[in-house]
Structure prediction request, 225 residues.
Amino acid sequence: MTLAYDSVLSTTAVISTVFQFLSGTVICRKYIQKKSTGESSGVPFICGFLSCSFWLRYGVLTNEQSVVMVNMIGSTLFLVYTLVYYVFTVNKRAYVKQFGIVLAILIGVIVYTNSLQDDPQKMIYITGIVCCVVTVCFFAAPLTSLVHVIRVKNSESLPLPLIATSFFVSLQWLIYGVLISDSFIQIPNFLGCLLSLLQLGLFVLYPPRSYSGQGYKLLEQAVPF
Prediction:
């Protein structure tokens, strides 16, 4: 019965996460229509690629097929988003530098963990730690917007649909992590749930004056696995 729960939950988690990743197509469509990235940042795309690549590596090492599948799709999508941003940004040199740094980090971690092939458990442990750190950094990114919401006492700048989706996705992966007893999946998604709940709580404390604020004009918050 537990295996059946694992299978159903992993399938629904993969599907919902892929739909969440696809939110980047909305942003890229705007870039293509305007033929410009405007003042928006492409860092979320680069970081999304980094996060999905690390989790893909972790999924391969632990033989978790659902983790492999969702992050293979995610890393591909974020790479495409990164290329689209590069085509339409005026700061190409700076963007290439940012991507180069991320690529160097990714390659460095892979090379280091490959040197630990005689100790597979240590390979998994180091990769899991890196995945957790990168994911927690992603979840910490919106904290600056939370400070702004508290200061102005208005949650209009927060994208409610995206936050609610993030909570739902994080909760699914948290439960899946509990079912398969994987702390590296549990910890970042537990923190993701807490952050999403905190943001949702701000909608209750500081209701938006309208649902057409900046958070709804352009959903730039890309959520990793």
In short: The CA atoms of residues 44 and 222 lie 6 Å apart. Residues 213-224 have pLDDT under 50 and may be disordered.
